[in-house]
Design a protein that fits this description.
Blueprint: H1 2-67, E1 68-71, E2 75-81, E3 84-89, E4 92-95, E5 101-107, E6 111-114, E7 118-121, E8 127-138, H2 141-146, H3 151-168, H4 172-177, H5 179-194, E9 199-210
Helix pairs in contact: 3-5
Length: about 210
């Protein structure tokens, strides 16, 4: 009888202790969740200013890169503001209005360009293979940039058509013997057209002139 009473008391004690232990575990779990959520909030609050600061620094670098430009010697800068011509900048450091100005550099040095060989027909219907070297220089960067779409291509095409016209008015003997006359005619005709492009044709030289086999 005594053993039965003791067993019943032990079971009652265990029954009262179990809820106490489970309640403690539940409180610890809730506290841990609260600490984790607080840590997440702190981490987010700390990372937000860092992200904003990085974006501002990157934006400042881009603005400075677009504001400060360096023009090399032998070039000039053509500044366009909102798509329209604004000014010509000389070699050195120059400043632009960011997101409003844009600049294109133009080479103002004298530049030789040798065209590809082409077959032309003389006055007496003989085919001759020729090409020429044209020395030109940009004297008005604004005209060179805005009066013709691509002055490099324009000069090359002009020299080719001019050579065809000159050789078409000469006989084969004259074409092979009168190189200076051809150079003078080529120079004069090139100048009459390139002046309106802001380009000076300084010299024109016939590179080759021979009858193909």
């Amino acid at each position: 009888m005594i053993w039965t009473v003791r067993a019943m008391m032990t079971m009652a004690s265990r029954t009262r202790t179990a809820p106490t232990i489970s309640g403690a575990v539940s409180l610890r779990t809730t506290a841990s969740c609260r600490r984790a959520s607080v840590n997440d909030v702190v981490a987010r609050a700390t990372s937000a200013p860092l992200i904003v600061g990085a974006v501002l620094v990157l934006l400042a670098i881009v603005i400075i890169a677009r504001t400060v430009q360096i023009i090399q010697q032998g070039y000039v800068g053509i500044v366009k503001r909102l798509g329209e011509f604004h000014s010509v900048r000389q070699p050195g450091v120059t400043f632009l209005v960011p997101l409003v100005d844009s600049m294109v550099t133009v080479d103002i040095r004298e530049t030789p360009r040798t065209g590809d060989k082409q077959d032309v027909i003389t006055r007496d219907n003989v085919t001759v293979s020729v090409n020429a070297t044209i020395f030109s220089q940009v004297v008005d960067p604004r005209l060179a940039l805005f009066s013709v779409s691509n002055y490099f291509v324009a000069i090359d095409q002009l020299s080719r058509t001019t050579l065809r016209a000159i050789f078409g008015g000469m006989s084969l003997d004259d074409a092979l013997s009168q190189r200076e006359r051809i150079n003078a005619q080529l120079q004069a005709q090139m100048e009459s057209v390139t002046d309106k492009w802001g380009i000076r044709s300084t010299e024109s030289r016939l590179s080759t002139s021979h009858r193909p086999r």
